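Dear colleagues,

As part of the handover before I leave the project, I'm documenting each prediction I ran so the next person doesn't have to rerun anything. This entry is a single chain, and its sequence is reproduced below.
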Amino acid sequence: RRATTTEGPSAHIMSSASLHAAVCAGVRPQVASKRFCVTSVGHGASSPVSWSSIGLFSSSGRFLRGPLSMKAAPATAAASKETEQYAGRCVVLTREEGKNGDMCSRLTARGIDCLEMPLIETVNGADRDALPAALNDPEGWTWVCITSPEAAKVFLKGWTEAGRPDLPIATVGAGTARILAEHYASGALAAPTFTPSKANADTMVVELPVDESSRVLYPASAKAASTLQDGLAARGATVTRLDTYSTENVTAVDPAVLARALAADVVTFGSPSAVKAWMALSGLDPAASDHPAYACIGGTSAKACDKIGLPGVLFPEDPGVDGWEGVVLKALEAAS
């Protein structure tokens, strides 16, 4: 059941973590019989590797990882008789409390057990109180850039406090845009919007319409990289970044829950912070062979895994829950 390999190359503290396991029954997916390509990353080299569920974690390379260009086929009632494929399989969901519901619903509908173990929590950032006034800046903004669902939620609170001004908003991807969708539907927001062709900061830097006269407001996590502001500034825009929130690592979990997580088939990561928290809590040696498989929401989390040398890490080519779900299913197949 476990994948093996043959080679090995702080801020606020949460007093305790309130954790629970969500376990439901459901149906398995109809996965297309299609071959994909993964990239072997490690020791300074990258090379294409032909994908197969048997060889995914083989000795051909310690760091066999994504990106995988795929999405999971939806679960259907017709597939209910095939739930045996995932019987007894367990996936650990590590996003903040309240953010694991979508993935849990998708996986439990396929008969997969889900253990919810939040590894990070959200706290206000140093610039949170400055957000409402910034949104009402009399000079206005060419764009307000929002690069995560959590940033969108924090933005909406500040936006409401500011009197709900109509602003041109650039969101990094569909998941972030969905947080704002109801306000466009109601007409409260009607200014131009923008979403890049790929859900990451690098693509937004290249594709966002800006010039030397542009003023960009970037309310972000205190831990977000400077990729967006640096890239837009290099194109001539004036960028104001506000650290409106931060994510802090959970430092204590119920021992029984942690024991279940260590015995799980797949652990999911939605951020680099979750990777760090997992390593601190699990006590696992990156070079050991008794790791679960790891499924990341995108390349940023996967890079954090690679930095510390975790084996068996996969991530989707396009960040988001659809691709993430597909990667989890492929990890389960490979670890069986």
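Residues 1-70 have pLDDT under 50 and may be disordered. The chain is about 30% helix and 20% strand.

All the best with the project,
I.
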